[in-house]
Amino acid sequence: MSSDHQPLDEMPSPMPVALSKYSKRVLLKTILDRTDGGLGLLDQRVVVGGWVKSSREMRKDPPPPTTQPPAAVGGDHTKEHTGGKDVKCVEVFQSRIPFLRTIIKVFGGNTGHTKEKLESIFPKQPPPSISFLQISDGSSVISLQIMVDSSIAPSTLLMPTGTCILAEGVLQKPSLQGKHTIELKAEKLLHIGIVDQDNYPLSKKSLPLARLRDCAHFRPRTTTVASVMRVRNALNHASHTFFQNQGFVHVEVPILTATDTEGLSKKFQIFTVSGKEVKREEPVSMDDTADISLETVKLSIIEKSKKIEELKRTDSNKEALDAAVHDLHKTNALAAELEARSKSKSKSKSESHKKTESLKTYDEFFTNRAFLTTSGSLHLESCASALGNVYALGPRFHADKSDSKKYLPERWMIETEIAFAELEDVMNCAEDFLKFVSHSVSENCYENLYFLSKRVDKTLIDRLQSMTSTSFEKITYDTAVEVLNKVTDKTFETKIQWGVALTEEHESYLVDEFYKKPVIIHDHPKELKPFNVRLNDDGKTVASFDVIVPKVGALIRGSQKEERLNHLTKRIKELGLRKDQYEWYLDLRKQGTVKHSGFSVTFDVMVLFATGLNDVRDVIPFLRQHGKLHN
């Protein structure tokens, strides 16, 4: 034998495919996501499981009729001999069914009643066929084709979309030409989970994403939502990897809190409910005015009135004056509401006692009022004062009834706090974080991104790659207002002026049209940011920043926190917040205070940025929004 040829018994065998450690099956991604598409695994026996995405059936040619030899004389009357094999009487009788049909048709007439009666006794067997099933187990964007003969299981049982199967068989080249590189020829089915097609929402093909929101428990079975979930997982993993690589400590912050963590934000209040139905005379107010004293509001009215008089004396623009007057009207309305509440509390003791008793059943677990947290940043500051660099990832809650496409009442946030860091330090950290996760998801989730680029947004891969290679533009709030005020070829719905929060259209113009890159806007007016952001030397702005990126706008918001006790106490008083809620927080400034900074990432919006979708309701596993809470 020539030395150029290797003996067959010395040919290397294909590498065995790895089993999933905990389910004794092969994950489809270990077959389909290989560079050779799985061809290196030909002839291997595997067990795979998944849900049918689509299917088709191919009829098999019927076998040729067999010739029956005459029965042996004197033989057993219960058997025939055909090719040396015993045939049972039932099988002989079934072979005579066509002959019996002919006899009945000739002598009994071709009546529908006779036909139905005969078929009820001898049901017609379905013709042999082969089912070709495209299944997915959630591990890959690609589906595996499985060929199942009807002798193993009837096609009517397997083909409905959503059917779950666990199959054992041999990997082979596709028996039909198509897009598949490899298929599994099933030899046995270990499990079949049938589907009620009339009640299964995914039986209809190509349901829009908006319709899928009503069946959140099934929508991960669609290719688009499954790809989004895998991208979300990759972003989660990349986020933890970044902070762990940089020496941060992961901290779990509380979801229940007695502190208004952002100040004057709409929040959910927690009650304990007994098993008995309790009638309440009036709903408990959960808005922000409950923590504001009437005296504070009256002082605010005096200050706002002085500001209006000052604007009238100067050459300030009409918009600023109108805004100040509108603000004063709102404050007067708040004062009137607080006065009305004060008067209502002075009603008869019997009515007051009745209300107290009815509400007591609802709020008896804690000694003070409890809320779902809107932010974990205050608690992270406590940990940063001991552990240095810390971060958290978890749900945050805002009782916001708006129909926003970017924010939901339950939103997932990544929050960080860095001891001994100032504003410039934390802005650099935020930029490095975004570049790291963008690169990581591009490298580790490319197949899903490629699929989404075909179905959703053609620019998403380029956008992610550009994020990793482009330096961010850093500008002050003042500069942003100046740039926007010089725009002449476009009219904004909200007129820009100093002191007004930038809207999405303002941010989009700066990022997409003017700078054409991600922008970090810093040093905002103090009225636009939370109470605990460090006041700048000018007394008007604070050390805050927003990271604005293409497609989604503001993705990260951060700041240097106020470490000076007197300044922080003054801000709490200015905003009319209850100081007793923040005594523990003020203690951090009394005992070993330190400069520190941090930022928060709206994780759901980051998934929007990476997937190209437009509505945050389509990138979370289970939807919670105003008016809807199904599961």
Automatic annotation (TrEMBL):
Tell me which residues make up the Aminoacyl-tRNA synthetase class II (D/K/N) domain. 220-271, 358-623
| Endpoints of the signal sequence | none
Q: Name one GO molecular function term.
A: asparagine-tRNA ligase activity
Which terms in the GO cellular component ontology are assigned?
A: mitochondrion
For the region Disordered, give the residue spans: 53-83
The answer to whether the entry has keyword Nuclease is no
- Extract the Pfam families matched here: tRNA-synt_2
Keyword field contains Aminoacyl-tRNA synthetase: yes
SUPFAM superfamilies (UniProt xref): Class II aaRS and biotin synthetases
Top-rank taxon of the source lineage equals Eukaryota
What GO terms describe the biological role, i.e. biological process, of this protein? Answer: asparaginyl-tRNA aminoacylation
Keywords annotated in UniProt: Aminoacyl-tRNA synthetase, ATP-binding, Ligase, Nucleotide-binding, Protein biosynthesis
Q: What name is this protein filed under? A: Aminoacyl-tRNA synthetase class II (D/K/N) domain-containing protein
Traced from the root, the source organism's taxonomic lineage reads: Eukaryota, Viridiplantae, Streptophyta, Embryophyta, Tracheophyta
